[in-house]
Amino acid sequence: MQKLIKVAVIAAVAGLALAGCSPVNDSKTVVLVAHDSFVMSEDLIKKFETESGYRLRLVKAGDAGAMTNKLILTKDQPIGDAVFGIDNSLIGLAKSNDVLAGVLEPIDFGDVCMNYDIDWFTSRGRPAPTDISQLTDPTYKGLTVVENPATSSTGMAFLATTVAKFGDPGYLDYWKKLHANGLKVDAGWEDAYYTDFSGSSGHGAYPIVLSYSSSPADEIRSNGTSQTAAILNDCYRQTEYAGILKRGKNPKGAAALVSFMQSQDFQKALPESMYVYPMLQGVALPATWAKFAPKATSLVGDQLNVVADRKDWLAAWSTLFE
């Protein structure tokens, strides 16, 4: 899942390799391939390295969809030992292409929902949307930015949402109307949220963005309220996994890292580091989450066969947008 992050935190993580680095052929180093929104604090890195005896290096490989595609293309000479960020819309793709060694372990989850900039709508005296079906209305022309489902797991989650809500082929009619209504499509979540969305640090031109129900907790201002809100109905629950890459140079190190991600220490950091819900039950959430990061009130898409149908959905969607 593409998750909310403070980009500056990544720069502070000393000693980690950036995207494009080759994995180290060293039994004492474990290389983690992760999507661009992955965050692990220096303290957690040191704790893992001290407890496990392994050094940690990170390869950032784009949004989750792009990352999974990269893992498939490099599966004979994998670029890492472990992976974080394959989600429930991508598991089938990874498994069918023989990328993984063993099972994927669930690490976190979040509800993919549309978000909007409260201040933008309030200052203009215009009603904020309350349902995704409204986004095709001229009232919201040119106001919405989403992520490409071919390269973004968040985008894929929303594509599945539309299939579940509007049916097949009804979802295509919905996307045609969105397209005609000035929809912007970005390659990944970070571009959409941090650059084009008006309610984030990027102060972009689009007051409606595809993100998560927890995203407003990252937009609390000095007055104690959030500048943004999420449309909590008809959302898609996205679960992120970690696992061992097949043919990786350090499977033992990878297993140790995956186990660490399931630990109390790693799990309790997730809400504030990546704005996702920890999979481990009983982990305390930040006090602001009860008000500003609620889970979705209704979920869709859990009955879909994403593994079997995603290729056809993407082909039909691409015909419209590419």
How would you portray this structure in words?
The protein has two domains: 7-110 and 238-284, 3-Layer(aba) Sandwich (D-Maltodextrin-Binding Protein, domain 2), CATH 3.40.190; 111-236 and 293-321, Periplasmic binding protein-like II (D-Maltodextrin-Binding Protein, domain 2, 3-Layer(aba) Sandwich). 35% of the residues lie in helices and 20% in strands. The chain has helices at residues 7-11, 42-52, 64-73, 91-96, 118-123, 153-166, 170-180, 189-196, 251-261, 264-273, 289-292, 306-321, and strands spanning 29-34, 55-60, 82-87, 100-117, 144-147, 184-186, 208-212, 228-230, 236-245, 277-278. Strand 1 (29-34), helix 2 and strand 2 form a beta-alpha-beta unit. It is globular, with a radius of gyration of 19 Å.
Main attributes of the structure:
globular, 12 helices, ten-stranded mixed sheet, 322 residues, alpha/beta, 20% strand, D-Maltodextrin-Binding Protein, domain 2, disordered N terminus
